[in-house]
Amino acid sequence: MRLSGLALLLISLTLSSTLFCIHPVQCDHGEEDELFQEINKYRASLNLTSLSKNENANCFANEMAGEFKGEACTNSTGANTVPGTEPQFSNYPDHLTKCHLNVSNTRDGSVMPACVPGLVPSLVLDNFTRSLYSANLNDSKYTGIGIGSQDNWIVVVLTTNTSQGSFVPETDDNSSSANVISQFGFIYFTLLFLAASFFFS
Ligand SMILES: *[C@@H]1O[C@H](CO)[C@@H](O)[C@H](O)[C@H]1NC(C)=O
Ligand SMILES: *[C@@H]1O[C@H](CO)[C@@H](O)[C@H](O)[C@H]1NC(C)=O
Ligand SMILES: *[C@@H]1O[C@H](CO)[C@@H](O)[C@H](O)[C@H]1NC(C)=O
Ligand SMILES: *[C@@H]1O[C@H](CO)[C@@H](O)[C@H](O)[C@H]1NC(C)=O
Ligand SMILES: *[C@@H]1O[C@H](CO)[C@@H](O)[C@H](O)[C@H]1NC(C)=O
Ligand SMILES: *[C@@H]1O[C@H](CO)[C@@H](O)[C@H](O)[C@H]1NC(C)=O
Protein backbone atom coordinates (compact mmCIF):
# COMPACT_ATOMS: atom_id res chain seq x y z
CA MET A 1 0.00 0.00 0.00
CA ARG A 2 2.78 2.37 0.96
CA LEU A 3 4.65 1.59 -2.24
CA SER A 4 1.64 2.14 -4.44
CA GLY A 5 1.03 5.46 -2.77
CA LEU A 6 4.58 6.53 -3.55
CA ALA A 7 4.25 5.34 -7.11
CA LEU A 8 1.04 7.28 -7.46
CA LEU A 9 2.73 10.41 -6.17
CA LEU A 10 5.58 10.00 -8.65
CA ILE A 11 3.21 9.40 -11.52
CA SER A 12 1.08 12.37 -10.63
CA LEU A 13 4.10 14.64 -10.27
CA THR A 14 5.36 13.59 -13.66
CA LEU A 15 1.95 14.09 -15.19
CA SER A 16 1.43 17.49 -13.67
CA SER A 17 4.83 18.76 -14.73
CA THR A 18 4.05 17.57 -18.23
CA LEU A 19 0.76 19.45 -18.13
CA PHE A 20 2.55 22.54 -16.93
CA CYS A 21 4.94 22.50 -19.84
CA ILE A 22 2.43 22.23 -22.65
CA HIS A 23 3.04 25.93 -23.29
CA PRO A 24 6.84 26.23 -23.38
CA VAL A 25 6.59 30.02 -23.12
CA GLN A 26 5.08 29.71 -19.68
CA CYS A 27 7.59 27.13 -18.64
CA ASP A 28 10.78 28.97 -19.32
CA HIS A 29 9.92 32.58 -18.68
CA GLY A 30 8.17 33.17 -15.40
CA GLU A 31 8.84 36.90 -15.55
CA GLU A 32 7.04 37.22 -18.84
CA ASP A 33 3.95 35.41 -17.68
CA GLU A 34 3.89 37.38 -14.47
CA LEU A 35 4.17 40.65 -16.34
CA PHE A 36 1.40 39.54 -18.69
CA GLN A 37 -0.93 38.93 -15.77
CA GLU A 38 0.05 42.12 -13.95
CA ILE A 39 -0.51 44.23 -17.05
CA ASN A 40 -3.97 42.76 -17.43
CA LYS A 41 -4.71 43.48 -13.77
CA TYR A 42 -3.59 47.03 -14.39
CA ARG A 43 -5.90 47.21 -17.41
CA ALA A 44 -8.76 45.79 -15.39
CA SER A 45 -8.24 48.46 -12.72
CA LEU A 46 -8.80 51.04 -15.47
CA ASN A 47 -11.84 49.17 -16.80
CA LEU A 48 -10.03 48.34 -20.02
CA THR A 49 -10.32 45.06 -21.90
CA SER A 50 -7.60 42.57 -21.10
CA LEU A 51 -4.93 41.94 -23.71
CA SER A 52 -4.72 38.54 -25.31
CA LYS A 53 -1.46 36.85 -26.20
CA ASN A 54 -0.30 37.25 -29.76
CA GLU A 55 2.24 34.66 -30.88
CA ASN A 56 3.79 36.79 -33.63
CA ALA A 57 4.15 39.75 -31.30
CA ASN A 58 5.73 37.41 -28.76
CA CYS A 59 8.21 36.28 -31.36
CA PHE A 60 8.99 39.85 -32.32
CA ALA A 61 9.40 40.90 -28.68
CA ASN A 62 11.95 38.13 -28.25
CA GLU A 63 13.83 39.22 -31.35
CA MET A 64 13.96 42.80 -30.08
CA ALA A 65 15.09 41.70 -26.63
CA GLY A 66 17.91 39.86 -28.40
CA GLU A 67 19.00 43.13 -30.02
CA PHE A 68 19.17 44.90 -26.65
CA LYS A 69 20.76 42.00 -24.83
CA GLY A 70 24.16 42.90 -23.42
CA GLU A 71 23.43 46.61 -23.43
CA ALA A 72 23.78 48.09 -19.96
CA CYS A 73 20.82 49.62 -18.13
CA THR A 74 21.25 53.36 -17.73
CA ASN A 75 18.94 56.22 -16.92
CA SER A 76 18.56 56.83 -20.64
CA THR A 77 17.69 53.32 -21.81
CA GLY A 78 14.46 51.35 -21.81
CA ALA A 79 11.56 52.93 -19.97
CA ASN A 80 13.68 56.00 -19.25
CA THR A 81 14.17 56.74 -22.94
CA VAL A 82 12.92 60.04 -24.25
CA PRO A 83 10.29 59.04 -26.84
CA GLY A 84 11.62 59.31 -30.36
CA THR A 85 15.21 58.55 -29.41
CA GLU A 86 14.85 54.78 -29.32
CA PRO A 87 17.55 52.99 -31.27
CA GLN A 88 16.59 51.91 -34.78
CA PHE A 89 17.93 48.56 -35.81
CA SER A 90 18.96 48.07 -39.39
CA ASN A 91 17.87 44.45 -39.30
CA TYR A 92 14.38 45.34 -38.12
CA PRO A 93 12.86 43.98 -41.37
CA ASP A 94 14.67 40.66 -40.88
CA HIS A 95 13.15 40.28 -37.44
CA LEU A 96 9.72 41.03 -38.86
CA THR A 97 10.17 38.41 -41.55
CA LYS A 98 11.36 35.84 -39.05
CA CYS A 99 8.13 36.36 -37.13
CA HIS A 100 5.93 36.19 -40.25
CA LEU A 101 5.27 39.92 -40.08
CA ASN A 102 5.74 42.95 -42.29
CA VAL A 103 5.53 46.72 -41.86
CA SER A 104 1.92 46.84 -43.02
CA ASN A 105 0.55 44.75 -40.21
CA THR A 106 2.77 46.12 -37.44
CA ARG A 107 2.57 49.86 -38.13
CA ASP A 108 0.01 50.57 -35.41
CA GLY A 109 1.64 48.35 -32.86
CA SER A 110 3.87 49.56 -30.07
CA VAL A 111 7.27 48.21 -29.02
CA MET A 112 8.38 49.00 -25.47
CA PRO A 113 11.79 47.82 -24.24
CA ALA A 114 12.72 48.04 -20.56
CA CYS A 115 15.96 47.30 -18.79
CA VAL A 116 15.82 46.02 -15.22
CA PRO A 117 18.78 44.18 -13.67
CA GLY A 118 17.64 40.66 -12.79
CA LEU A 119 14.16 41.40 -14.17
CA VAL A 120 12.78 41.88 -10.64
CA PRO A 121 9.01 41.57 -11.27
CA SER A 122 7.83 44.58 -9.25
CA LEU A 123 10.45 46.85 -10.84
CA VAL A 124 9.61 45.51 -14.27
CA LEU A 125 5.93 46.30 -13.74
CA ASP A 126 6.76 49.83 -12.57
CA ASN A 127 8.85 50.37 -15.66
CA PHE A 128 5.71 49.90 -17.72
CA THR A 129 2.94 51.27 -15.54
CA ARG A 130 4.83 54.22 -14.03
CA SER A 131 6.60 55.58 -17.07
CA LEU A 132 5.55 57.17 -20.33
CA TYR A 133 4.76 53.63 -21.49
CA SER A 134 1.64 53.78 -19.35
CA ALA A 135 0.07 55.98 -22.04
CA ASN A 136 0.02 52.87 -24.24
CA LEU A 137 -1.18 50.55 -21.52
CA ASN A 138 -3.99 53.04 -20.83
CA ASP A 139 -5.06 52.99 -24.45
CA SER A 140 -8.18 51.01 -25.33
CA LYS A 141 -7.06 50.62 -28.96
CA TYR A 142 -4.63 47.87 -27.97
CA THR A 143 -6.09 44.40 -27.77
CA GLY A 144 -3.12 42.03 -27.95
CA ILE A 145 0.30 41.64 -26.38
CA GLY A 146 3.60 39.84 -26.85
CA ILE A 147 6.41 39.72 -24.31
CA GLY A 148 10.01 38.64 -24.76
CA SER A 149 13.05 38.84 -22.52
CA GLN A 150 16.78 38.27 -22.74
CA ASP A 151 19.24 39.07 -20.00
CA ASN A 152 18.17 42.25 -18.22
CA TRP A 153 15.94 43.31 -21.06
CA ILE A 154 12.22 42.72 -21.35
CA VAL A 155 10.23 43.92 -24.34
CA VAL A 156 6.47 44.35 -24.52
CA VAL A 157 4.79 44.59 -27.91
CA LEU A 158 1.20 45.80 -28.07
CA THR A 159 -1.05 45.00 -31.00
CA THR A 160 -4.41 46.28 -32.20
CA ASN A 161 -7.33 44.49 -33.78
CA THR A 162 -7.03 46.54 -36.98
CA SER A 163 -5.22 45.23 -40.03
CA GLN A 164 -2.42 47.82 -39.57
CA GLY A 165 -1.56 46.55 -36.13
CA SER A 166 -2.92 43.05 -35.90
CA PHE A 167 0.46 41.29 -36.12
CA VAL A 168 -1.74 38.65 -37.79
CA PRO A 169 -2.81 37.12 -34.55
CA GLU A 170 -3.01 33.41 -34.19
CA THR A 171 -5.62 33.04 -31.53
CA ASP A 172 -3.78 31.67 -28.57
CA ASP A 173 -6.25 32.24 -25.80
CA ASN A 174 -4.80 29.60 -23.59
CA SER A 175 -6.65 29.25 -20.32
CA SER A 176 -3.55 29.45 -18.17
CA SER A 177 -5.46 30.24 -15.00
CA ALA A 178 -7.78 27.30 -15.64
CA ASN A 179 -4.70 25.11 -16.13
CA VAL A 180 -3.25 26.17 -12.81
CA ILE A 181 -6.54 25.63 -11.03
CA SER A 182 -7.10 22.18 -12.47
CA GLN A 183 -3.53 21.35 -11.60
CA PHE A 184 -3.91 22.41 -8.01
CA GLY A 185 -7.03 20.32 -7.92
CA PHE A 186 -5.13 17.38 -9.28
CA ILE A 187 -2.25 17.66 -6.82
CA TYR A 188 -4.62 18.22 -3.96
CA PHE A 189 -6.60 15.13 -4.91
CA THR A 190 -3.41 13.10 -5.20
CA LEU A 191 -2.17 14.17 -1.79
CA LEU A 192 -5.53 13.37 -0.29
CA PHE A 193 -5.48 9.95 -1.90
CA LEU A 194 -1.94 9.39 -0.71
CA ALA A 195 -2.84 10.38 2.84
CA ALA A 196 -5.81 8.03 2.72
CA SER A 197 -3.69 5.15 1.48
CA PHE A 198 -1.23 5.65 4.33
CA PHE A 199 -4.06 5.87 6.80
CA PHE A 200 -5.68 2.64 5.69
CA SER A 201 -2.50 0.61 5.19
C1 LIG B 1 -14.63 51.10 -13.38
O1 LIG B 1 -16.02 50.74 -13.39
C2 LIG B 1 -16.59 50.76 -12.11
C3 LIG B 1 -18.00 50.23 -12.23
O2 LIG B 1 -18.59 50.63 -13.43
C4 LIG B 1 -16.56 52.20 -11.57
O3 LIG B 1 -17.10 52.23 -10.26
C5 LIG B 1 -15.10 52.66 -11.49
O4 LIG B 1 -15.04 54.02 -11.07
C6 LIG B 1 -14.45 52.53 -12.85
N1 LIG B 1 -13.01 52.82 -12.72
C7 LIG B 1 -12.35 53.58 -13.58
C8 LIG B 1 -10.90 53.77 -13.32
O5 LIG B 1 -12.89 54.08 -14.57
C1 LIG C 1 21.73 59.98 -15.51
O1 LIG C 1 22.87 59.49 -14.85
C2 LIG C 1 23.98 60.34 -14.99
C3 LIG C 1 25.20 59.65 -14.39
O2 LIG C 1 24.84 58.85 -13.30
C4 LIG C 1 23.69 61.69 -14.31
O3 LIG C 1 24.79 62.55 -14.44
C5 LIG C 1 22.46 62.31 -14.99
O4 LIG C 1 22.09 63.49 -14.32
C6 LIG C 1 21.29 61.34 -14.96
N1 LIG C 1 20.20 61.88 -15.74
C7 LIG C 1 18.94 61.87 -15.31
C8 LIG C 1 17.93 62.45 -16.24
O5 LIG C 1 18.61 61.41 -14.22
C1 LIG D 1 2.56 42.40 -46.06
O1 LIG D 1 1.85 41.18 -46.11
C2 LIG D 1 0.59 41.30 -46.76
C3 LIG D 1 -0.14 39.98 -46.59
O2 LIG D 1 0.71 38.91 -46.56
C4 LIG D 1 0.82 41.66 -48.21
O3 LIG D 1 -0.43 41.80 -48.86
C5 LIG D 1 1.56 42.99 -48.25
O4 LIG D 1 1.86 43.32 -49.59
C6 LIG D 1 2.85 42.93 -47.45
N1 LIG D 1 3.41 44.27 -47.38
C7 LIG D 1 4.72 44.51 -47.48
C8 LIG D 1 5.13 45.93 -47.37
O5 LIG D 1 5.52 43.61 -47.68
C1 LIG E 1 12.93 50.85 -14.27
O1 LIG E 1 13.85 49.98 -13.67
C2 LIG E 1 15.10 50.57 -13.39
C3 LIG E 1 16.03 49.50 -12.90
O2 LIG E 1 15.52 48.85 -11.79
C4 LIG E 1 14.91 51.68 -12.35
O3 LIG E 1 16.15 52.28 -12.04
C5 LIG E 1 13.95 52.69 -12.92
O4 LIG E 1 13.68 53.68 -11.94
C6 LIG E 1 12.67 52.04 -13.36
N1 LIG E 1 11.84 52.99 -14.02
C7 LIG E 1 10.56 53.17 -13.71
C8 LIG E 1 9.84 54.21 -14.49
O5 LIG E 1 9.99 52.51 -12.86
C1 LIG F 1 -2.39 56.06 -17.25
O1 LIG F 1 -3.42 55.91 -16.29
C2 LIG F 1 -2.96 56.00 -14.96
C3 LIG F 1 -4.13 55.68 -14.05
O2 LIG F 1 -5.25 56.45 -14.39
C4 LIG F 1 -2.39 57.40 -14.70
O3 LIG F 1 -1.89 57.48 -13.38
C5 LIG F 1 -1.26 57.65 -15.68
O4 LIG F 1 -0.79 58.98 -15.54
C6 LIG F 1 -1.74 57.44 -17.11
N1 LIG F 1 -0.59 57.54 -17.98
C7 LIG F 1 -0.46 58.52 -18.87
C8 LIG F 1 0.82 58.56 -19.64
O5 LIG F 1 -1.33 59.34 -19.07
C1 LIG G 1 -11.55 46.06 -31.64
O1 LIG G 1 -11.36 46.50 -30.33
C2 LIG G 1 -12.26 47.52 -29.93
C3 LIG G 1 -11.84 48.00 -28.57
O2 LIG G 1 -11.62 46.94 -27.69
C4 LIG G 1 -13.67 46.95 -29.96
O3 LIG G 1 -14.60 47.96 -29.59
C5 LIG G 1 -13.99 46.46 -31.36
O4 LIG G 1 -15.26 45.83 -31.38
C6 LIG G 1 -12.92 45.46 -31.82
N1 LIG G 1 -13.17 45.12 -33.21
C7 LIG G 1 -13.04 43.88 -33.66
C8 LIG G 1 -13.27 43.71 -35.13
O5 LIG G 1 -12.76 42.94 -32.94
Automatic annotation (TrEMBL):
Q: Which PANTHER family match?
A: GLYCOPROTEIN MEMBRANE GPI-ANCHORED PROTEIN (PTHR33976:SF7), OS07G0645000 PROTEIN (PTHR33976)
Keyword list (alphabetical) reads:
Membrane, Signal, Transmembrane, Transmembrane helix
Q: Does the keyword Repeat apply?
A: no
**Membrane-crossing residue ranges in chain numbering:** 180-200
Q: What residue range is the signal peptide? A: 1-27
Q: Tell me which residues make up the Uncharacterized GPI-anchored protein At5g19230-like domain.
A: 32-158
The record's Pfam families line, in alphabetical order, gives: At5g19230
What residue ranges carry the coiled-coil annotation?
none
Does this entry carry the keyword Iron? Answer: no
Q: What is this protein called?
A: Uncharacterized GPI-anchored protein At5g19230-like domain-containing protein
